[in-house]
């Protein structure tokens, strides 16, 4: 069962938050005012001073204090859940024809039909609740009720059952509710057997729950209808919103206004002594304490909800500004270059035009406000950009409106000549990946940044300096330090090799196998991290070299080298190299100097990138 | 004035969001049903088909369509704002003694006192609004009204004025409201001159606003009471919450339940044709269209609010999961090492014990739910940690409860032997920085990570290998490659130098000035980024060296070198070095090899860190 399995994580009674819950519990424990409901002996028979308090987060952590596992009947707290099932069974429109959603200034057991619409004012008064019960679908009465019971069980995350004694007593004495049932039948609000509907209502009110159950049911409502312990969906997001709306205006009978002001959470109470409150998206709260106030709400329950709302600032209109910002980080190819090692000419171009690129990392769930802030920020800068990357890897749910807005933005930017790429491995904007922008959706940021750099290079590379994509050994910069004749002599020692795309040139752990000069094409050095994921360390292109370190230090290769494209290599074998190093130490020195210089330039760049990024975000 | 200055940013009628607003505007434009209010000729005289729609974000971006600058009288939309001022003037408790906050199923102009409390049911019906007007403080009637007008002006971000013609007409014909005033006086609900209160109410209803004004007023409520255009606070956060609560339950008269279900935003409408709606923390919406439905609400206004709520998913119970997560990133010193270059021995220790460190970057505003998720995640891991860093640089507002929770967590961790450091340059947890943890609050992450590594090194460094903090030239690893005699000979050429703490050893741009070996102490290499901020590139300690590259390549120093502590250096001057390089090329080679090896090891480490972090978060 979800709950114990959950408890083993760590007992709910230690830790910072558990202590807060315990404090509030202790604070409210003293109050022994009020009396348990006594209209039937079974309710009067409870432990009047029993007290349980539970707080469950929308992701399923349950904190509790007191009698959190004592059973009691759910009573009126059942109303929103049967209403929810009726909405799911019949659809909101059909239900709206039978039950209004307006607060009624009247007691819960008032007949209270709207004089104009002749409909029960709302589903939280008995008339509305009995009507909701009449709308549940099923093969027969037994099946219909079992669907109700199973629905509650999905919210609670465990199989709930009926307290037969309480049910029998309710059924025996519930004259007023029977009267309501017949009246509803006479108005045609109920068009089936009213006795069956009223009986189902009695049964649903007699379902046994614990404080822990109610907290999980509340957390399920807080979690958009998905039970956070079982992962099972108990209600659609849209209907969850609707049920919470009705609880907001009609949940606490005629104290609704005061409740919204002082507690600020959609809630429902029952004469069994339970109260359930929901902070949408965040928290579910449940209290059990049988002593009731004049309005039929649990005395300690109301006090505990007020205290928690005040101390934890749980009011549902208490908002965070951060909910508004979807841009997690924002930078250019200067702060975060791709891991393609660029030539001196390319570096010069990027140094001049880096500011015409922008990478935006979005995060969080993209609702309208978040998307609006992101779209606005991007629109304000797009005019000065050649290429823009939107990184969606850390985005959660994307609302329909956000997808529309981003697709619209995409067209807008392309129209003004700013090229756009997405990092969207999970296709969160699936349809954006299709069609014209297909080629600009990447699975990782590094490749997207490489694309970004390529756009800038394509636009701003001086016509006079076309990219040098192929060369001879003599032309290779590695030999630049040598006099022409020395260069020619050395070149003769190199062995030419061509490697097919994706072929491995060198394996991790291979011993020194020569000095490799790249004459054409691209090779990629990769390594695997602790989790076995392969990362690109760097991509090398024509005019660059590898293998020097194993060569000079006699160490094995630490990274795999693989051809990204067809590659043409010139290799100076170990034997030749050693002979050379001996005969022409000045050549070895030249190589080493160049090597050290390149290496230090890279250290510098890499560390600067980390330093600046560490500062920026 | 704020609004035009704002418009120059970029016209509100282009861009993705502006188009959405324009769409909704066009969608609602067709409906010409309903009639303008006509109980006074001045209201009947408006352009019946005038229509304006504005959406303003909580950070002050205003999108508009149609007649957004047409003036009309605010009418009942004034009620929440005068109520707000009364709450500020008298305090919530005193106001609560005069006005309830319960929805009344009755029309707005009903006398409607609660039979039990004899108080107006809520401040959104006339009886409650007139009572609120009677509670405004001031020297005299004129001053009291001007305080009301200035209060509205703070919300709107510009000076508002009265439409005298409408006022005169209201004052001439408002018999029913005068009756209400006298009745309230007879009950003692108003204990001052009722005529004055009613007159103030007439004046406030006659204040001219535009659709743009109302949107900014709504955005100010959405922004916790701070006008996002002027930055001026119009109402405290707590009172803003209270006013929005009352608007939620009582704002739309007897359609409150339906409004909450289908629109889901606290709102207020007026017979002038305006509607104001608020999505707390995110959006303010305003509509102006004089044709009213039977309930006295603007026909297009209601339609536009429904359409925007549906299309933009603005329902205030529609929540994002991400609001729940305060942990922005989580990693160890393995992924993000400090920029202190560690010795081989230290690297060995860190390679073994990196998992006993953890850096948590928090972000967003820390309300309870966010703090709970962070505290829980930290508590679950703290048992296996030696040192933990909480980076608060990206945290916004920190609620009182979050401060308490983090302080409590801090004590808890220290008690189980996990050392804690904060990165909190702005002292967001001010009092946490005090007392015992003072020494563990850092201004930047890099220093905090260095501290983290030091804790691990202090705990796990083998007793057999104490940190080598001082050495002679002969002992310096740079000379390790040499035979003992060669080493001794070379050592003789070095000049000893001691540098005081914070003294500059080498300036950026200095030409080759020698090969520097660190014998004791620490030096820091720094560089300035594009914004002129100085970053630590690396800190070097005893046994390390610098100046090789300028030496070998003849390039100037690219970074400043400054003593972090008192430092003892051994320097081999350029002349000596060149002679050496000539006489003993094998020594130069040895130096170069070591140099290249060290450099490539660093490139590898730096790039891996970037690669892994790029993938992880």
UniProtKB/TrEMBL annotation, chains A, B:
Residues 478-598 form the Cyclic nucleotide-binding domain. Its EC number is 3.5.1.2. SMART domains: cNMP. Transmembrane segments: none annotated. It catalyses: L-glutamine + H2O = L-glutamate + NH4(+). Substrate binds at residues 76, 126, 170, 177, 201, 253, 271. GO terms for molecular function: glutaminase activity. InterPro entries: Beta-lactam/transpept-like (IPR012338), cNMP-bd_dom (IPR000595), cNMP-bd_dom_sf (IPR018490), Glutaminase (IPR015868), RmlC-like_jellyroll (IPR014710), STAS_dom (IPR002645), STAS_dom_sf (IPR036513). Residues 359-429 form the STAS domain. Keywords: Acetylation, Hydrolase. Belongs to the glutaminase family. PANTHER family: GLUTAMINASE. Homotetramer. This is Glutaminase. It comes from Nocardia xishanensis. The gene is glsA.
């Amino acid at each position: 069962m979800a709950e114990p399995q959950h408890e083993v994580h760590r007992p709910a009674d230690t830790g910072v938050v558990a202590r807060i819950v315990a404090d509030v519990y202790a604070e409210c424990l003293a109050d022994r005012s009020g009396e348990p409901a006594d209209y039937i002996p079974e309710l009067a028979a409870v432990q009047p001073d029993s007290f349980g308090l539970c707080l469950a987060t929308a992701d399923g952590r349950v904190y509790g204090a007191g009698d959190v596992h004592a059973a009691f009947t759910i009573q009126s707290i059942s109303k929103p859940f049967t209403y929810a099932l009726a909405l799911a069974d019949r659809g909101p429109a059909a239900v709206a024809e039978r039950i209004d959603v307006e607060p009624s200034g009247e007691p819960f057991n008032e007949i209270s039909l709207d004089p104009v619409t002749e409909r029960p004012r709302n589903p939280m008064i008995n008339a509305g609740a009995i009507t909701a019960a009449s709308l549940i679908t099923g093969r027969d009465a037994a099946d219909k009720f079992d669907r109700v019971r199973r629905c509650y069980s999905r919210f609670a995350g465990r199989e709930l059952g009926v307290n037969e004694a309480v049910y029998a007593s309710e059924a025996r004495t519930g004259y007023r509710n029977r009267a309501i049932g017949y009246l509803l039948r006479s108005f045609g609000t109920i068009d089936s057997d009213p006795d069956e509907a009223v009986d189902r209502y009695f049964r649903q009110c007699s379902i046994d729950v614990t404080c822990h159950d109610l907290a999980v049911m509340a957390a399920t409502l807080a979690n958009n209808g998905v039970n956070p312990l079982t992962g099972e969906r108990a209600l659609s997001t849209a209907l969850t919103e609707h049920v919470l709306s009705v609880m907001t205006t009609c949940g606490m009978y005629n104290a609704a206004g005061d409740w919204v002001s002082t507690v600020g959470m959609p809630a429902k109470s029952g004469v069994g002594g339970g109260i359930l409150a929901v902070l949408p998206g965040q928290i579910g709260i449940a209290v059990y304490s049988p002593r009731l106030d004049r309005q039929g709400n649990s005395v300690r329950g109301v006090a505990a909800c007020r205290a928690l709302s005040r101390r934890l600032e749980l009011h549902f209109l208490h908002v965070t500004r951060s909910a508004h910002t979807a841009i997690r980080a924002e930078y250019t190819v200067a702060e975060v270059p791709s891991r393609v090692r660029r030539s001196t000419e390319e570096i010069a171009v990027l140094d001049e035009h880096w500011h015409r690129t922008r990478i935006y990392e979005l995060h969080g769930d993209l609702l309208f406000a978040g998307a609006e802030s992101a779209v606005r920020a991007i629109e304000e800068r797009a005019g000065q950009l050649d290429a823009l990357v939107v990184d969606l890897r850390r985005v959660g749910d994307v609302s329909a409106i956000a997808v529309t807005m981003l697709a619209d933005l995409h067209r807008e930017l392309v129209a003004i000549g700013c090229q756009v790429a997405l990092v969207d491995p999970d296709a969160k904007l699936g349809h954006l990946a299709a069609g014209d922008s297909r080629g600009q959706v990447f699975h990782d940021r590094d490749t997207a940044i490489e694309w970004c750099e390529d756009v800038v290079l394509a636009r701003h590379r001086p016509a006079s300096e076309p990219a040098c994509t192929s060369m001879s050994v003599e032309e290779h910069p590695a030999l630049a330090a040598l006099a022409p004749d020395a260069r020619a002599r050395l070149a003769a020692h190199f062995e030419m090799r061509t490697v097919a795309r994706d072929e491995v040139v060198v394996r991790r752990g291979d011993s020194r196998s020569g000095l490799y000069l790249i004459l054409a094409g691209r090779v990629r050095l990769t390594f695997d991290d602790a989790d076995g994921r392969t990362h690109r360390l760097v991509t090398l292109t024509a005019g660059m070299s590898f293998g020097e370190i194993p060569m000079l230090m006699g160490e094995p290769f630490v990274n795999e080298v693989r051809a990204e494209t067809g590659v043409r290599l010139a290799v100076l074998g170990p034997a030749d190299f050693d002979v050379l190093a001996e005969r022409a130490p000045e050549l070895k020195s030249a190589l080493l100097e160049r090597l050290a210089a390149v290496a230090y330039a890279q250290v510098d760049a890499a560390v600067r990138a980390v330093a600046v990024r560490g500062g920026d975000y």
